[in-house]
Amino acid sequence: MESLQLATSIAKVLDTKKAANVKVLKVRDLTVLTDYFVIANGTSTTHVKSLAEEVEFQLEQQGVKALRTEGYDAKNWILLDYGTVIVHVFYPQAREFYDLEHLWADAEECDIQFDTPAEGGANE
């Protein structure tokens, strides 16, 4: 699966599960670590965990497995590393504290078209 397609698919899974403020950042030209970041937040630590688990589940159904995961114990910031795409699922206060969008301000934000606006989801 091509990296933008993978990032878009992940963003849509997160949006469907009512993640807030879903963003896809193209960081390919800024780092050798990955091509895209997908950043989102849940409304509680339980929601953060369920969002990350749903991304893993949906991608495993397509034969795509995370190379590495971190943060499931604390549930404030769960990272899923898919090689060309790194997913960051935050608890709101952790997202504000780490402020990846500011840290990667030179990254291009991709315009992802979600199928239906989710209440409390990415389109707010």
TrEMBL record:
Keyword Transit peptide (UniProt): no
Subcellular location: Cytoplasm
GO CC term, one of those recorded: cytoplasm
Name the UniProt record assigns to this protein: Ribosomal silencing factor RsfS
Pfam families linked to this entry: RsfS (PF02410)
InterPro entries: Iojap/RsfS/C7orf30 (IPR004394), NT_sf (IPR043519)
Family: Belongs to the Iojap/RsfS family.
Primary localisation category: cytoplasm
Quaternary structure and interacting proteins, as annotated: Interacts with ribosomal protein uL14 (rplN).
Job description of the protein: Functions as a ribosomal silencing factor. Interacts with ribosomal protein uL14 (rplN), blocking formation of intersubunit bridge B8. Prevents association of the 30S and 50S ribosomal subunits and the formation of functional ribosomes, thus repressing translation.
Entry's Gene Ontology molecular function annotations: ribosomal large subunit binding
UniProt entry keywords in alphabetical sequence: Cytoplasm, Repressor, Translation regulation
Record-linked PANTHER family: IOJAP SUPERFAMILY ORTHOLOG (PTHR21043), MITOCHONDRIAL ASSEMBLY OF RIBOSOMAL LARGE SUBUNIT PROTEIN 1 (PTHR21043:SF0)
Keyword Mitochondrion: no
Encoding gene (name): rsfS
Record GO biological process: cytosolic ribosome assembly; negative regulation of ribosome biogenesis; negative regulation of translation
Gene3D superfamilies for the chain: Beta Polymerase, domain 2 (3.30.460.10)
Top-level taxonomic group: Bacteria
